[in-house]
Amino acid sequence: MAKTPSDIRSLARSHTETALSTLAGIAQNGTSESARVAASVALLDRGWGKPTQPISGDEDGDAIKLIHKIERVIVDPSNQNT
Length: 82
Known about the structure:
Low-confidence stretches: none
Distance between the termini: 47 Å
Number of strands: 0
Helix content: 40-55%
Number of helices: 3
Shape: elongated
Largest sheet: none
């Protein structure tokens, strides 16, 4: 039987302590440097959130330009096709 998203979330959250302990163990004793870095980053992301990403412009370094278009359409109510 399919689980609801809240059931899945609850089940996943029930394994938080085990997952964090596993990540901490890999961060301290992992056999490769890349595994230790990945586990450390995962722990920091979970504890402090991911770092904010700056918004950059195009390749020339210009700031991002937002263009908004507002259009006014005047409709003659007596000439509407329904």
